[in-house]
């Protein structure tokens, strides 16, 4: 048997995004932008059973667009010679640079001719068109589902890629969801994406109590609108399914959240309600964080609390020597199968002793009158605010008043300025006015003895008018007008 020689080959052209361009007759065009550099790919294969030699030539419609041909270690601006063994293949690359000064709508058709002989060749073609062509891909998670446990949040990651040749502004929104479903973004999504850029974002979902376990027919749809600076829009959507896990989700509430002014030994009661908001039954254990001086009783283990069921228990709280205010915490903990998601619940109760209101005063009166503690606190804050405002007003109105001016009565303005009054107050007289000397003369001793004898004549009465002021007073006081009931003394020459 004789095997004939077979000379055959194939050439496939791909766009810069890796999309097959197709045959020359209906080849895809590619949108490009100013000053863009891109690479077209050629996959050349020897389909025969002998070595072949191929020539490849690239012919652009516009020669002003820089272009280069690369095959393996070979490179040339337009033409290359390829040697392929039987069954061999090679990847070639056509690098094209779009000039910065091209106009919108300009195009350059690229023709690639690969030939074995004049009659055995393959022609590939594509056109590069300068235009804004927005395009966007939005993809849901590969699994197509997001897992959600009741009492918590479920998350799903979406990916998006700008496959167009222009940056896009992004606007995000959700499609309609069933009532009670709460859907949102785990983190704020980006509001823009550059061309040929990819990114991811996460959405979150919370479901209402009692939602059955399993895969639901309802889905969550994410929508994104990409807009160019010229207002051209492209809208994409992606949908993810919802799978709810088995969950025991406890909800806890008390009809009383505050017990005030309990006397020592006093007991009060309240009602605690626990609800299983999950979708499977569970056992419930209670633990109480009781502050010192308080006693709490009335709760025990619930062996089985079905999905959607509630139980209410009466509890008692006793002041067993507490003298202060505090907070009591009740924790409910579920337990169930290994595959069940468990969510605790807690409630806080504020407690206070009657001894807090036994010290007298306004606040004790309000407390004894039955005014709630939080109202008393607000009243105290308000009173403090009024005092602060009053002090600020007094300080503002008192600005500019000297401490010396504040003690001067009406009519005291004749004392002059602050500096003058200070100088007068410090003036104790001159040495000439001083009646005290450092020694006593013989004449002064004799005069004193004579005055003390019995035969001394009475001194003449003082002249009418007020007595002279003592030395050392400020000048303004020594010149003050006489009292209204005194008779002025006329001096000589007046």
List the helices and strands and how they pair.
Layout: E1 9-14, E2 30-32, E3 37-46, E4 52-60, E5 67-71, E6 74-76, E7 79-84, E8 89-97, E9 107-115, E10 121-130, E11 136-139, E12 145-148, E13 154-162, E14 168-174, E15 182-185, E16 192-193, E17 198-206, E18 214-227, E19 233-244, E20 247-254, E21 258-262, E22 267-276, E23 282-289, E24 294-297, E25 302-305, E26 310-319, E27 326-335, E28 341-343, E29 345-353, H1 362-368, H2 373-397, H3 418-426, H4 442-451, H5 475-478
Parallel strand pairs: 2-10, 12-19, 20-28, 21-29
Antiparallel strand pairs: 1-3, 3-8, 4-7, 4-9, 5-6, 5-8, 9-10, 11-13, 13-17, 14-16, 14-18, 15-17, 18-19, 20-22, 22-26, 23-25, 23-27, 24-26, 27-29
Write the CATH homologous superfamily of the domain at 9-130.
Immunoglobulins
Total helical segments:
5
Largest sheet: 5 strands, antiparallel
Count of DSSP E strands?
A: 29
Please report the distance between the alpha carbons of the first and last residues. Answer: 168 Å
Q: Detail the poorly predicted runs.
A: 409-414, 454-459, 482-494
**What characteristic shape results from the CA principal axes?**
flat
Task: Write structural notes for this entry.
It is a single chain. The chain is mainly β. The longest helix has 25 residues, at 373-397. Helix content is 11%, strand content 42%. The model is unreliable at 409-414, 454-459 and 482-494 (pLDDT under 50).
Brief overview:
The protein is mostly beta strands.
Descriptive keywords:
Immunoglobulin-like; five-stranded antiparallel β-sheet; five-stranded mixed β-sheet; 494 residues; disordered C terminus; 29 strands; 11% helix
């Amino acid at each position: 048997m004789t095997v004939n020689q077979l000379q055959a080959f194939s050439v496939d052209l791909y766009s810069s995004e890796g999309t097959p361009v197709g045959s020359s007759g209906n080849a895809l065009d590619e949108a490009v932008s100013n000053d863009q550099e891109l690479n077209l790919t050629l996959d050349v294969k020897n389909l025969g059973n002998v070595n072949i030699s191929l020539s490849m030539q690239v012919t652009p419609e516009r020669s002003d667009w820089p272009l280069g041909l690369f095959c393996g270690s070979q490179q040339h601006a337009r033409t290359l010679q390829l040697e392929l063994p039987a069954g061999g293949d090679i990847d070639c690359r056509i690098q094209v640079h779009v000039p910065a000064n091209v106009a919108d709508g300009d195009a350059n058709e690229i023709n690639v001719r690969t030939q074995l002989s004049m009659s055995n060749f393959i022609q590939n073609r594509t056109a590069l068109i300068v235009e804004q062509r927005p395009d966007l891909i939005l993809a849901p998670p590969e699994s197509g589902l997001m897992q959600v446990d009741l009492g918590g949040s479920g998350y799903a990651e979406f990916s998006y890629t700008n496959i167009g040749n222009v940056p896009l502004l992004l606007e995000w929104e959700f499609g309609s969801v069933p009532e009670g479903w709460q859907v949102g973004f785990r983190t704020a999504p980006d509001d823009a994406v550059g061309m040929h850029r990819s990114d991811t974002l996460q959405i979150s979902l919370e479901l209402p109590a009692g939602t059955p376990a399993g895969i639901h027919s309802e889905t969550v749809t994410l929508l994104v609108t990409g807009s160019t600076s010229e207002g051209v829009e492209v809208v994409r959507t992606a949908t993810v399914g919802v799978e709810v896990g088995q969950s025991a989700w406890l909800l806890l509430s008390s009809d009383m959240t505050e017990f005030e002014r309990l006397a020592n030994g006093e007991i009060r009661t309240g009602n605690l309600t626990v609800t299983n908001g999950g979708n499977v039954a569970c056992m419930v254990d209670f633990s109480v964080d009781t502050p010192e001086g308080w006693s709490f009783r009335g709760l025990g283990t619930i062996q089985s609390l079905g999905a959607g069921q509630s139980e209410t228990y009466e509890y008692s709280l006793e002041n067993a020597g507490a003298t202060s205010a505090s907070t009591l915490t009740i924790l409910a903990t579920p337990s169930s199968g290994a595959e069940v998601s468990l969510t605790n619940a807690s409630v806080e109760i504020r407690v206070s002793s009657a001894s807090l209101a036994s010290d007298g005063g306004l606040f004790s009166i309000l407390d004894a009158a039955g005014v709630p503690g939080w109202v008393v606190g607000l009243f105290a804050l308000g009173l403090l605010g009024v005092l602060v405002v009053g002090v600020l007003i007094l300080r503002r109105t008192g600005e500019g008043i000297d401490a010396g001016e504040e003690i001067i009565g009406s009519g005291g303005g004749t004392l002059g300025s602050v500096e003058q009054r200070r100088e007068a107050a410090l003036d104790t007289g001159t040495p000439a006015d001083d009646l005290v000397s450092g020694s006593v003369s013989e004449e002064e001793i004799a005069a004193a003895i004579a005055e003390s004898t019995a035969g001394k004549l009475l001194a003449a009465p003082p002249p009418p008018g007020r007595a002279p002021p003592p030395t050392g007073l400020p000048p303004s006081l020594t010149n003050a007008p006489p009292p209204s009931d005194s008779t002025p003394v006329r001096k000589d020459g007046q």
